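Lab notebook, bench 4. The sequencing result for the construct came back, and we need a structural model before the next group meeting so we can plan mutations. Quick request posted to the team channel:

Model the 3D structure of this chain.
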Amino acid sequence: MAEIPAAIVKQLRERTGQGMMDCKKALMETDGDMEKAVDLLRKKGLAVMEKRGGRETKEGRVVGQTSDNGKSAVLVMLCSETDFTSKNEDFQEAAQQLARSLLQAAEVPDSAEAAGELAVGDGRKVNDVINEIMSKTGEKIIIGEFVRFDLTQPGMLKCYVHFNRKVGTILQIDTESEEAAHHPAVQDLANDLTMHVTAANPIAVTRDEIDSELLAREKEIAAAQVQNKPANIIDKIVTGKINKWFKQVVLLEQPFVKDDSKTVRQLMEEVSKQAGGEVAVKQFRRLQIG
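Done. Here's the predicted structure in token form:
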């Protein structure tokens, strides 16, 4: 075919972020068809991903979003190979698009692969957006962990992402009424607890939620540490060690990070009195890159 005009090559480069020679070659291979050339370059992006399939994606970005009515919230990780790519504007926008798609989905996807098939609102899928960035950067980019909470009773949802964008928390608080959910003390509590979870990294809200196998392993470790003690006091020592461990990993038993003179449970009790009814943490999830 005839020589590809430089203006057309430049236009393709601006759309895809590829080098001028790659864009010119793609246009020549597709007889100057812009859309087919874009698709061809995207396919090359997929080839890049296949070549880098074994590369680690320890960098990225955590994004949280809440619906306009406050009834749904999502927290998601979009992962990359390098911090440089995670700071790219296209990458950051892709993370936001992924979060919006998860927030708007009729059903929460059960895998990263399914999340990649969600629409982003402009005729493309999440995977299309990711593939375009991989084509530009040559890096492997994947959807990491994600979670969505949906309110089915009075309460509130809150997302918090640390300023480094590498770690964040999503939290659900249940209240006895909608009025209580909008009480300033409850709003402040949600803000404080998402930051607390991000900093203190608890594994459960209460003792009862801790996995039985994990608890058994901790008891076994505690017993091994005191095996030389008199048999009649071993159980007491092990119980003491486990109770200390509970204070480290159970949210309600942890010292509140902003005021360690009280536990989170005591803070919850104070807020419940201010709100005029019981305020309880229903669930939380903490996500961290790397």
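The chain is about 50% helix and 20% strand.
Will bring this to the meeting.
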